[in-house]
Specification:
Strand content: 5-15%
Number of strands: 7
Largest sheet: 5 strands, antiparallel
Shape: globular
Helix content: 40-55%
Number of helices: 14
Structural class: alpha+beta
Length: 311
């Protein structure tokens, strides 16, 4: 049966979403990935700097999460994988697991509803005196989707072809847990923070009732740890693995086997090297000290912190 040229085109456009649905049924759930870049245009409000701050991080994340809920129409069909530094932008990597949710987000983004929602939530949660304006950009792989917003089907295809190459970041897991706890209210069994605990600056940590500046682990830290930890390196590795995906599962035993001939020093050295490589700037001194405390290795923590023994 022949159709006029215009009718043929209309029929093709109408059946494309159905073909995508058929493809989903044949090859598993529809997934795709997009990155939304955000930059504040308000003087004195830097989203990237706020996110790097310990207290500001949760507020900015909450603004982003509430905006996505508004834009998609609920909590399902997507998840935030990572929020990262894309100076001067803040990058938000989102995985979509439902084509309808992705399309709803694209329609909200095209209409300006995403920016409006960002502005409203930021003004309220950041207690801004003036109207908050934000510049946004949406990308799927190398494609700038802002250029194709009139062709939502093409945007969906680009997002679908940009498959997520990572699992959800550990930091996002923690922030999601904070949001859930806040929604449920304070835990009546959790003791309130003492004045000492609440007075520790975000770039410091407390050890043995003293406050130390936090920083990235150095070569000297790795060497001091490797010299002093001995056979306990596995226990420390498992303690670090509670918050480091690269050290979960069989990773510790694999390191032990791989460097068995080189001895305990090399095994411990490779453990911290793996931790630093996986965590990057988040491989902080405070995390190592906490792991050593958990393993009852406070004397080694004192050595690394260069605390003089008590007389």
């Amino acid at each position: 049966m022949l159709f006029p040229r215009r009718a043929q085109r209309t029929l093709c456009m109408e059946t494309t979403p159905r073909r995508m649905a058929d493809k989903t049924e044949d090859h598993g759930p529809w997934t795709g990935c997009a990155v939304m870049f955000l930059q504040s245009l308000c003087p004195g409000v830097n989203l990237l700097s706020l996110y790097k701050d310990k207290q500001g991080k949760f507020i900015v994340f909450k603004v982003i999460k509430l905006t996505l809920i508004d834009s998609v129409g609920g909590l399902g069909g997507y998840e935030i994988l990572k929020v990262h530094d894309a100076d001067p932008f803040l990058g938000v990597e989102v995985k979509f697991v439902d084509v309808a949710a992705c399309q709803q987000f694209l329609e909200s983004y095209r209409s300006g509803a995403v920016r409006q929602s960002l502005s409203q939530h930021a003004c309220r949660l950041l207690a801004l005196p003036q109207e908050f304006t934000v510049e946004t950009q949406l990308k799927a792989s190398t494609h700038i989707l802002d250029l194709y917003l009139d062709e939502l089907e093409l945007c969906l295809q680009h997002i679908h072809l940009s498959q997520p190459g990572r699992l959800r970041d550990e930091e996002i897991d923690y922030l999601e847990q904070q949001l859930t706890c806040q929604a449920l209210g304070p835990d009546p069994l959790s003791p309130p923070l003492t004045q000492e605990e609440s007075s520790v600056p975000s770039n410091c940590f407390r050890f043995q009732n003293k406050v130390f500046p936090d920083r990235m682990l150095t070569a000297a830290d790795v060497q001091g740890f490797s010299n002093g930890v001995g056979r306990q390196w596995k226990h420390v590795g498992r303690a670090l693995g509670k918050s480091c995906r690269a050290l979960k599962g069989p990773a510790i035993d694999n390191l032990a086997y791989e460097y068995e001939r080189e001895g305990l020093y090399e095994q411990a050295y490779q453990l911290l090297s793996r931790f630093i490589q996986a965590e990057g700037r988040a491989a902080k001194l405070s995390r190592l000290v906490k792991a050593l405390e958990d393993c009852k290795l406070t004397s080694l923590a004192e050595n690394i912190l260069d605390i003089q023994p008590r007389e």
